[in-house]
Amino acid sequence: MTDIAGSATVQAWVESPFQLLGALEAHAAGRLGERLVVLPRKDVEPLVTAVAEVSRLGLPDGVTVKLPTGAPRRGGEYLAVGDAFSGAVHRLLVQAPPKRLALLDDGRSTRRVMDALLDDDVPLVRPHIKQTAHRTVLARMAKLRLRRMIGQRRLQVITALNLPDRVLRAAAEAGLPIEHNDFSWLRSLPENGAAEDTGPDKTVVLGTSMVANRLIKAQPYLAWIRGMADRGPVVYRAHRRENASTLSPLTNYPGITMIRGEVPVEVSLRGMTGRHRVVTLPTTAVSSLRLIAPQADIREFAVPQEWWMPGVPEAARQQLTPDGDSDFLEIPQHSST
Q: Higher-confidence residue: 8 or 324?
């Protein structure tokens, strides 16, 4: 395999703030060529905000960020993408794949992507979204393309997640290199003052999109958040996909300070210390914040079984569980009723 790190220029098609950070970190670590051209997806407002913030902080050397655009029509020589479930990525892989491809993190769904790449029986689709016949066929063709690229040593994965040993063994046997992202570039930046807004007397709650995505019920989740606010001040950092079903009931609730900024928490909370406490349901931010702010008290809670909406597939529930190799807490049933 011609190492993508040794190429002159790599393009990165990013569709979310987290994918943007993954591309910048990979380039700063020397894994994405001498020059990186970032292509942000158009019509994603949080991505525009994230680009502005990292540009203000100072991009790594050799990085150019283009104006928001549609998906590239051709993969070219070297390409990095974040969302291997994306229909736009699938079409690109089928119609005009790159010669070399790097898969970046897109949250904990990376684990599902790895299962799809290495297991014949796992489709390359999000388990909680019903697929049309056309999308099912497209995903199958994209998976075949990626499997072929693995065999030809044209694919690599760069992730901040701790993948299960079985996945690491299967990847090694298949010839799929996996490189670890430890957010060293982000950790090297000067600390910001955002943590001052979340002092030691306050609990920072990371909002979730699971209610908006109809994965969990709204009422027990809201009762849990209100219960925390009843016991002490809460700073609620809304998820970029949250909607009125959670934001409206919490915005004016006593004891809750609502922050709807679209800057990734990996950036805005990177200055946290041992004085800071974070509470959240399962989210990729747990994995990333534990790398970026290891001193912070980060408490991840499993989703109670009674919170799940009817019909949510088991595969989707498993994707939204706490890290298997880290401590997590359970929500007492009385706190959500």
A: 8
At residue 1 the predicted structure's pLDDT band, cuts being 50, 70 and 90, is very low
CA dist., res. 170 & res. 176, Å (int): 9
Nearest to 30 by CA among 102, 99, 114, 98: 102
CATH architecture of 4-187: 3-Layer(aba) Sandwich (3.40)
- Between CA 228 and CA 310 the distance in angstroms is 26
Check for a shared fold between 4-187 and 190-336. yes
Bridge partner list, 79: 11, 101
Q: Give mean pLDDT, residues 239-255.
A: 92
Query: Cα angle at 48 between 42 and 53, to 5 degrees?
Result: 155
Residues in the chain: 337
Sheet holding 203-206, edge to edge: 256-259, 234-237, 203-206, 277-280, 297-302, 329-330
> pLDDT category, 198, cuts 50, 70, 90?
low
Per-domain residue ranges of the chain:
4-187, 190-336
Query: Which architecture characterizes domain 190-336 according to CATH?
Result: 3-Layer(aba) Sandwich (3.40)
